[in-house]
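Q: Give me the 3D complex with heme C.
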Amino acid sequence: MGKTSKPTRASQAVRNIVTAAIVVTGVAGAAYVVAQGKNEPIQPVVAAKITNPAKVELGKKLFFDPRLSKSGFISCNSCHNLSMGGSDNLPTSIGDRWQQGPINSPTVLNSSLNFVQFWDGRAKDLQEQASGPIANPKEMAFTHELAVEVLNSIPQYRAEFAKVYGDKKLDINLVADAIAEFEKTLKTPNSRFDQWLKGNKKAITAEELKGYELFKSSGCTACHNGEAVGGTSYQKMGVFEPYKTANTAQGRADVTKNDAERFFFKVPTLRNVELTYPYFHDGAAKTLEEAVDIMGRLQLGRTYTPEETAQIVAFLKTLTGEQPKLQLPILPPSQNNTPRPKPFE
Ligand code: HEC
Ligand code: HEC
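A: Here is the predicted complex, encoded as structure tokens.
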């Protein structure tokens, strides 16, 4: 998906931070009049339009199918559990043979809105992302060839691929394409905050509104903005104070090998953030209070009172939208010639 301009260079990200700092010094303490609607830095989530229901249905099956993993036990939904906000609620994910993953699992909800995928932006879109975990030894630990062999051995899958893709050869690109189509439907419109944005003044409480005003006036929106309240830029974790972590991820610098981009991460979405604990790329912040406190100090050089933190947390909880209403897919059974799972090898 061609998303808006990509501030991929460090210089752009640094400019964004400078903007954040200006917002902080310029507006802190000033009385803030909240104008509802179009001028807000956050826009309501637009519900997904389904144009190809057969492709979405196929992608949903694949998303839930653990036979795309070596163990036959791990599906996309294992780490992006749609009953838990599209995440796994673990500090870092557990993959094949109980291996501890290197990084926190981001939510798949609204992930189509991200300007790039992964914490370090190494995949440009959902299609490019989707084939990765299948072959990742620490995630599903399979090979693309074997995944395709499994699907090809199951007549119902063959028929569904043929229905959606005609006589194109069933390969990993089609698998990724179908999964991405399903993921694009995982949007969460109509949160209480969105109802407020659309003009229903009663949709959020006075406390939650104070939290939003503080969120804006202290400069959180310099980085967390747009439809997803994030996902629009890379920013440095630790602007005013360094972030201390034992996690070895270096963010953008891992991709670009440019030391100036060390600890630049894709700003995560704050939609449904109430559901996607624990927080940060290392999953080190267990609660929203902790995450807000760290963001205030490290990103904005500001220490909130417990009361202010509570207001911002109350606001963040209004960002929980309608969760996708899914009918659990029933997966077509393996056949005698379907390669069998190897959970312990
Ligand atoms: C073992 C756990 C695990 C499994 C299984 C898994 N993922 Fe992930 N997923 C992760 C982790 C961890 C990340 C973050 C990795 C990173 O940024 O380096 C991630 C990142 C993503 C992202 C990027 C989201 C964002 O905000 O950047 C998407 C989309 C995604 N996964 C979809 C999938 C799909 C589709 C599948 C199945 C084919 C899948 N995942 C299987 C753990 C998992
Ligand atoms: C300079 C940019 C910037 C500013 C300003 C900023 N953030 Fe963040 N925010 C980030 C980045 C980058 C991350 C991811 C950091 C990481 O995982 O190491 C993040 C992560 C978060 C998370 C965790 C989300 C998750 O799923 O893990 C929360 C909650 C959050 N920010 C809230 C806030 C609040 C509240 C404010 C204002 C007090 C704020 N942020 C200000 C850039 C920013």
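A quick observation: The domain at 53-183 is CATH 1.10.760.10 (Cytochrome Bc1 Complex; Chain D, domain 2).
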